[in-house]
Amino acid sequence: MNRLTDVSWEDFSSLPLEEKSPYLSRGDGDGTPYHTLFAQQFDRPLLERLCALANRIRFINKSCEGAMFLKSVLAHKRAMLYFSQPSSRTFLSHLAACQILGLTTGSVRDAATSSEFKGESNEDSVRTFSSYFDMIIMRSPKQGLAEKMAWELSNSSRPIPILNAGSGKDQHPTQALLDIYTLIRSFEMKGGVDGRTVVFCGDLLRGRTVRSLSYLLTKFDGVKQIFVAPKELQVPDDVIAVLKEKGVEHSLSSDLKAAVKVADAVYMTRIQDEWDESKGESAKIDTSHFKFGAEELALLGPDGVIMHPLPRRDEISTVCDHDPRAMYWRQMRNGMWIRAALIAAVFGYEKTIMECGY
Ligand code: CP
User: How far is CA 335 from the centre of its chain?
Assistant: First the structure.
């Protein structure tokens, strides 16, 4: 078994992502994560198990007795939500997921309210949280911080799991999980996800949800990926390199309408101008052709779905909101269930929930 205690930070951090995964698992032999850092940790059987667990939690929670049972499952655990970047959905859905499972929670949502304001390092802050909590759910603008903290904690006297709720421009693994869960549910009665065409549109360069979801879609057979963006914001080369290596059919385009005509799912994203390197950089890019409105809705097939990690600005018109193919509201709620499933699995309670009598 690979353990983070057996590898130096230098050696671990230089491994390709897929080779890091065994170091991050619980060691049960089935890939269940201990630390959840990258989409690369999830293979298809694990994705399907987590979706089944999310469905089970969703069902059990419908009855008062079932909800009380779920609340007892992790009532002995505490989780810290450490968000040093703005968030509505990821913060609240993790909080709600903890509440469903009975975990008590603490939070820092602004470094200005913690001792980081006094100059404490991220490393010392996380070590401090690990003194009081049993899991850290963290979002940071710093690429790789969650990974570094996972290594640090595993090599400390109080190792606890880290759950990456968004790091830099690179990874948002639980968003990818909820996106996959939404796709699986959307196509459950319509032949499944295999063989579908997924169109990504918007700021594909800096949207970390795109990188994570594009990777997870490679776990499904014959899923074609089309990337529609202004040339300045097209999907980065490392994402394309993965698709080429895995033999995934893909194309780059600037024609949203043409892509929508062949799409089973359209994944819209907003312009991520918080990453602009100079003021007004994104505003200079013509994004007017990368918006989904009534015309695109008319081109989408009857079984097609429209997704968005949210928050949105104007890249999906509100005229789409009540269309049954708009899945972005469901994505949010699905995020709560799949995050509850992941947290239960991380703590080793998958079987307890799957086999309970509710
Ligand atoms: N999708 C997403 O990460 O939303 P928040 O930034 O609101 O958490």
Answer: 9
* Closest residue to atom 6 of ligand 1, CA basis: 87
| Known catalytic membership, residue 118 | yes
Indicate if 172 belongs to the active site.
Answer: yes
Q: In what order do the strands lie in the sheet with 162-167?
A: 104-108, 78-83, 135-140, 162-167
Strand, helix or coil for residue 189: coil
Active site residue 90: yes
State phi, psi for 242 to the nearest 5 degrees: -65, -45
Inform me whether the pLDDT recorded for 169 exceeds 90: no
Which of 353, 357, 355, 356 lies closest to 100, judged by CA? 353
223 lines ligand 1 (CB under 6 A): no
Tell me the two tokens of residue 309.
Answer: 């990690």
% of the chain with per-residue pLDDT over 70: 100
pTM of the model: 0.96
Residues in the chain, overall count:
358
**pLDDT per residue as tens digits for the range 229-286:** 999 999 999 999 999 999 999 999 999 999 999 999 999 999 999 999 999 999 999 9
Q: 109 CA to middle of ligand 1, Å?
A: 13
**CA angle at residue 335 from 101 to 105, to 5 degrees?**
40
Q: Using a 6 Å cutoff on CB, does residue 88 contact ligand 1?
A: yes
> Ligand 1, atom 3: nearest CA belongs to which residue?
90
133: which residues sit within 8 A by CB, 6+ positions away?
78, 79, 80, 106, 160
* Cβ atoms of 165 and 90 closer than 8 Å: yes
User: Which atom belonging to ligand 1 lies closest to the Cα atom of 165?
Assistant: 3
The type of residue at 329 is: W
Identify the H or E element spanning 197.
Answer: strand 197-201
139 tagged catalytic: yes
For residue 85, the ligand 1 atom closest to its alpha carbon is 6
Does the beta carbon of 89 lie inside 6 Å of ligand 1?
Answer: yes
Instruction: Determine if ligand 1 sits within 6 Å of the CB of residue 154.
Output: no
